[in-house]
Amino acid sequence: MKRACIAFVCVVAWSLHHFFSDEPSVCLAARLRLASPRREQSHARRIIRLDGTWDIAQGTRDRVPQQFDHKVPVPGLVDMAKPAFVEVGKKSEKREAFWYRRTFAVEGAIPEIATFKIHKVKYGTMIWLNGELVGDHLPCFTPGLFDVKEFLKGSGQQNELIVRVGANRESLPSDMPTGWDFEKYLYIPGIYDCVELIFTGAPYVSNIQIVPELQDNSVHIEALIQNPRRKDNIDIVCTVRELKSGRVFASDQSHVKKLADDPVYLFDTILSMDDCQLWSPEDPFLYELEVDIGTDSAKARFGMRSFRFDKESGRAILNGKPYFMRGTNVCILRFFEDSQRGDRPWRKEWVRRLHRKFKSMHWNSIRYCIGFPPEIWYDVADEEGFLIQDEFPIWLLNKAPENPTSENIIPQYKEWMQERWNHPCVVIWDAQNESITEETGKALQAVRHLDHSDRPWENGWAEPQSPNDCVESHPYLFSKAWRGRTSFRLNEMPNVSGVPRLRSAQKKLNVPIIINEYGWLWLNRDGSPTCLTRNVYRSLLGPGASIPQMRYVYARNLAALTEFWRCHRKCAGVLHFCGLAYSRPGGLDRPIAGATSDHFMDLETLNFEPNFEQYVRDAFSPVGLMIDMWADKLSPSQEIDVPVVVINDHSTDWKGTLSLRVERADAVVSEQSKPCKVTRLGREVLSFKQCIPSESGSYLLVAELAAQDKTIARSLRDFSVVASSGDDNL
């Protein structure tokens, strides 16, 4: 018989409270403001991590294997097992399920409350403890919580934990989200996030929501307190500390009475945060809240920050000020099938180095695309300073082999939000990717009120659900060649609108736009084209192009596109695709070859391909520029106007020098410069009269921004001087 987890029931009760009551939560406590609580710290909460090496076996779904003769790391994926299993990640007659097993001991008596938390598992989870069925949890991307009090043995006795995991995505019903991805070929199962036993007394804190109120210099705290023993009085101490220093910043003590009639109590309070330090990508300052109720003490990290979109300006607003999002994407579920992945997604030092490498590209934003990474990634993003567009893994394109319904999506959206809503890095709930469906809209409308920070939502190609939301655009100009036509070329840019194309449903509310994919120029890490870009490079360079040629063309074209979308200032953000994905070189036909890739030459050292790092980094410079001249053939000795757009993403004015020069074979043919000043968050257009050289040949036009004798960024355009100008594209 399945036994429901107490924690899960309480979450449902809390959700029902919000769904059916329009009244604000009222705290019954009499509150006493304390300078610093002198109450002895509670040590009732104890967390036992069950990560490490587990036994694993394969078999049917209905019977525990007799032998466990493989080992596997947790967290990790089944393809990391030793000895290795074959045909992992696809449907196979060799198994219906994988079975994980480990033993552990608990010293002393089992506390009043014992909750087993398994953060993320693919594909469908069922739990046994000491031979007894505990329960199941089908979602693949949100945590499962199980009450294991009655099954646990204490006093140092051995406990046997068994977790059954579906062997493939077909293990789940087709009306549930499974993470289908048209560019994935392997769906590798496993316990891919940490596993914990959480011990507390009763009452205990099952969830905390922290809502920064910057306009009032305060923080609103909601703590969901479970009271299964119907205790009548509780003392609650809330303490805010600076995360790094541990210094107490704010505190509050409350005494709550008359609780015995209610097994679930929603406590709320407001703490003053006068003179607090705000969180931003430029200054990711973190605090930690502790809620101590004597029988339990729960902690949660947070940052003092606000985020929204302004419909009129089309801008993101961070901490009350316009903020331009520059960034990239991480496709972690694709990276999971990368042959060089190894254990990197679970090594926090590698994850931190990855995010710092992203910072070196002037990126302040990341879309965790079509899937959630392990929770340590969100901790790192909090600490290093990134704005995260957190995308739930639903991608349908109207032809996916799954059709998740809102009834199955809603509970998972709730679990997702409750797990993430205290992370300052998470600023956008992204309901889905490139899907035209009513189901995600229904689901997000059912849950959005639970987030009292009122983060905006993004709903893929479906209708935005609020004028405060945003939409995504994927202007893949170079995709023409994949469809069998002549490839797009940069000399066509004058015909491209600075407002990227949207689907008809996305236009309903005229909300701000984020470009979070563009390019269609991918190369595998070895420099070979992907299955989607072979025709692009054939069209641009002809057959037999070398790898150095393709890498150079990729970087230069991607840089020019980045400049174009950023400098037109029509979007709230420009996020390149893709900072981390898989690389599948080899054949050129799907499903053998990969469709997309990232730019790393070495995954362990995290060295980028040099052309990408050189040219695309400049294109993302906070003080950036664009040569708004796209002709690739010019007549000798003609004089032309060369507009140069300069933008400033900073909240302070910028001044320096803008120069324009013509080069040939690294020699300077001509050069001129002008002083340049751009107000904060501003845009200026400076125009140069440029005389084209008289001698035919290939040239390079270079615009360069400099300040205090230091180059800030460059924009480059290749052109040829030809004797006949009949085919010019001026």
Give an overview of the whole structure.
- The chain is of the alpha+beta class and 730 residues long.
- The chain has three domains: 46-200, Jelly Rolls (Sandwich), CATH 2.60.120.260; 321-620, Alpha-Beta Barrel (TIM Barrel), CATH 3.20.20; 624-721, Immunoglobulin-like.
- 14% of the residues lie in helices and 34% in strands.
- The chain has nine helices and 43 strands.
- The strands form eleven sheets. An eight-stranded parallel beta sheet has the order 30-29-28-27-26-33-32-31.
- Helix 3 packs across helix 4, helix 5 (406-420) crosses helix 6 and helix 8 packs parallel to helix 9 (610-619).
- The chain is globular.
Q: Structural class of the helices, strands and pairings?
A: alpha+beta
CATH topology group of the largest domain: TIM Barrel
Please give the oligomerization state of what you see. Answer: single chain
* Whole-angstrom Rg: 28 Å
Given the structure, what is the number of helices?
Answer: 9
Taken as a percent bin, the fraction of beta residues is: 25-35%
Largest sheet: 8 strands, parallel
What strand order characterises the main sheet? 30-29-28-27-26-33-32-31
State the CATH superfamily name of the largest domain.
Glycosidases
Tell me the CATH architecture of the largest domain.
Alpha-Beta Barrel
Shape: globular
